[in-house]
Specification:
The chain is mainly alpha-helical. It is built from 5 helices and 4 strands, in the order ααββααββα.
Length: 125
């Protein structure tokens, strides 16, 4: 399965890459691997969708990120017509529209982002 780095995800969800990196260092999200001692994080498309949906919930409804992430996980990983979130209250997500938008931006960002070199530069002789 294809996975993306934090810079490509940041471009796709219109946030600074430092924001995405900090978010992923504070939460455990299935579909995110790496991120330790020089290993770049790799984020699966499903995890990107969870992040994108959480950011929409945060921006549009003012939810705190932990609550937005909990709801977005349920919306993305267990798609239903409407997610019951209380008495007489349900939440819906147009998952296909979000996928089309975010994955399209991810593909464009994936081609534009060049992997960063780590360590000391090679000495030219």
């Amino acid at each position: 399965m294809r996975a993306f780095d934090t810079r490509a995800v940041a471009i796709a969800v219109d946030r600074p890459d430092k924001f995405i990196d900090n978010l992923l260092s504070r939460i455990v999200l299935s579909g995110v691997v790496g991120g330790r001692q020089g290993q770049p994080r790799r984020i699966t498309p499903t995890a990107v969708m969870v992040i994108a949906a959480a950011l929409r919930l945060h921006d549009e409804l003012g939810l705190a990120m932990p609550q937005a992430l909990a709801l977005s996980r349920r919306l993305v990983e267990e798609p239903t017509d409407a997610l019951p979130i209380g008495r007489h209250l349900a939440l819906t997500l147009d998952l296909q529209a979000l996928k089309d938008e975010v994955l399209g931006r991810l593909e464009a960002a994936g081609e534009a982002v060049i992997e960063r070199r780590r360590g000391r530069p090679k000495i030219k002789a």
